[in-house]
Amino acid sequence: EPLIGVLALQGGVAEHLAALERSGARAIPVRRVEELDAVDGIVLPGGESTTMTRLLDTFELYDPLRARLAEGLPAYGSCAGMIMLASSVDDDRAAAVRPLGALDVVVRRNAFGRQVDSFETDLDFQGVDGPVHAVFIRAPWVDKIGAGVSVLATLPEVPDALGTPDATEREGLAGRIVAVQQGAVLATAFHPELVEGDERVHRCFVRIVRER
Ligand code: GLN
């Protein structure tokens, strides 16, 4: 079984560890360079990308993680984790986020307006059979992708789950890119680790790690 680390500085660490264990991997929290050195792949969880940036510095993990990613370490980022994997971040507080540049995309933080701040919807996901239930919490979306990046999922429409977007807002949401892959790097704007009993996205990542 591959050994997969979950960056454990803050955010949804336990849920990812559990989902990975259910997906045919051994999973460990990563807080130190020695742990980072030991893993075959890494998950960057959701949380808050400004805080994660600060903690990566505090724990002296920013440069080692960036270096391992540059060498091709397989990585999966959900939500804030997707922001951290990006090559660039586009918003008014972008200066507070120092993304790791493992994925050739521009992401927009907190991209969904206040009214659809958090919501759930079903998505088609490339490589996965049947709809994937996607939970979005103050999520980013992908604004631009580089040549080597494939789109795995886009928003179909946004149901009135938690917010009530008006017609104009709905129009601006449909088709937004919310999951991408570039080589061994996978990212989703949503949180599959929060949907218990469905490990299909984590299994995709475990397969990517195994194939390396
Ligand atoms: N809004 C957060 C950020 O900008 C991401 C939210 C999440 O990970 N659920 O980092």
TrEMBL record:
Gene Ontology BP terms: L-glutamine catabolic process; pyridoxal phosphate biosynthetic process; pyridoxine metabolic process
Entry keywords, A to Z: Glutamine amidotransferase, Hydrolase, Lyase, Pyridoxal phosphate
Pathway info: Cofactor biosynthesis; pyridoxal 5'-phosphate biosynthesis
Keyword Lyase found: yes
Active-site residues (renumbered): 79, 191, 193
Cross-referenced Pfam families: SNO
Binding site for L-glutamine: 47-49, 109, 137-138
Gene Ontology CC annotations of this record: cytosol; glutaminase complex
Cross-referenced Gene3D superfamilies: 3.40.50.880
Top-rank taxon: Bacteria
InterPro entries assigned: Class_I_gatase-like, PdxT/SNO, PdxT/SNO_CS
Gene Ontology molecular function, alphabetical: glutaminase activity; pyridoxal 5'-phosphate synthase (glutamine hydrolysing) activity
Keyword Nucleus assigned: no
Enzyme Commission (EC) number: 4.3.3.6, 3.5.1.2
Catalytic reactions on record: L-glutamine + H2O = L-glutamate + NH4(+); aldehydo-D-ribose 5-phosphate + D-glyceraldehyde 3-phosphate + L-glutamine = pyridoxal 5'-phosphate + L-glutamate + phosphate + 3 H2O + H(+)
Similarity section: Belongs to the glutaminase PdxT/SNO family.
Quaternary structure, from the entry: In the presence of PdxS, forms a dodecamer of heterodimers. Only shows activity in the heterodimer.
HAMAP family: PdxT
Function: Catalyzes the hydrolysis of glutamine to glutamate and ammonia as part of the biosynthesis of pyridoxal 5'-phosphate. The resulting ammonia molecule is channeled to the active site of PdxS.
Name of protein: Pyridoxal 5'-phosphate synthase subunit PdxT
Organism: Saccharopolyspora flava
